[in-house]
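pasting FNIP repeat-containing protein for the record, 286 residues
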Amino acid sequence: MPFELVDYETVKLPKSLTYLHLVKVPIPVGFIPDRVKILSIISHNSGDFEILPGSIPSSVETLTLRGYEGPTTTEYLPDSIKELDWNRQTNTQTLSSTLETLSWGYMGPANDNPMNLPFMFPSTIQHIKCTTITFPLPPSLISLECQFDTTCLIDNSYYSISKFNYQQQQDNNNNNLLLLPLNLRKLKIQANEIFGEGISKFSFRLDEVINQTNVETLSIVMSRRILFKATIKRLEKDNSRVLIVDNKSLFGGIIHQSRQSNNEYAPIYLHNSKKVNNNYIPYWSH
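structre below
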C-alpha cells in the first residue's frame, strides 16, 4: 500500500515493535509504540517534514532523520536518544542530554555549517562523525571521523590536525600539548590530494598524532579508498620508540625519534606514492 494512503489515525502498530522505519510525516502522537528503540524517519523534501511534540516516544535510543529542520528541544527529540544520525542543514537549539554518538551528514558550504553555531554538546558525547571540523571538539570524545579541507593545510604543503578547533591541554604523561581530547583513541580522516605546481600529492604530519594525541587507531581515506589504517603503540613514555602497524598491509615498523636542539622531535610526514593496482601506497619521511 502506498504510504500516502495510510490512515495514521486508525492503523495500529504492534506494541511489541522495537524497530521502525517511516517515510511519511507528520506522525500523530501515539502512533509509534512506546517499545520502539530504533527509529528512522526519512523525507526527501525538508519543507514538509514535521515532527509533532510527543510523537517520538521516550523509548527511542537510536534515531535517524533525513530532511528534518524543525525544533530539536526535548518535546520533539526526547532525552532518551543516545545515537543520532541526521543531515540537518540549519541551526540546532539543543541535543539529547544522554547523546553518545552523533553522525552529522551536512553537505553544504563550510562557512554555513550548522555545527559552527553555539550549542553545547552533552557531557555524554563520545563519538562524532561529521564533515569538516569547524566547531570546538568536546573533551569527552573517544572517537572522531571527519574530513580534511583546505583550512587544514599548512602552506598548501601538508595537512595538520593542529588546525582542528580544540582548546589544547597539557598531557601529564609527557608534558606535550594535546591537539585532540585526552581520551580520544580512534581517529578516521577523509582527505583529498593536494594540488600545486602541476602535480598532486598527499602529505600529513604523522608525528603530531604520535606525540600530541593519545590516538591508538588512525585511518586515512582518499578517494573512498583506505590509504592508511594503522595501530599506534607507544613503546616508551617519552615516545622515543613507537610501533606503527598498518592493519591492511605489511607497511609499518618501529619509529625511533630523537630530540633536536630545540628539544622537540623532528616532523614525520605520511605520504602517498603512485597508485599500484588502483591503490595508493603509503610511505613516511622526516
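The mean pLDDT is 86.
Residues 146-286 form one domain.
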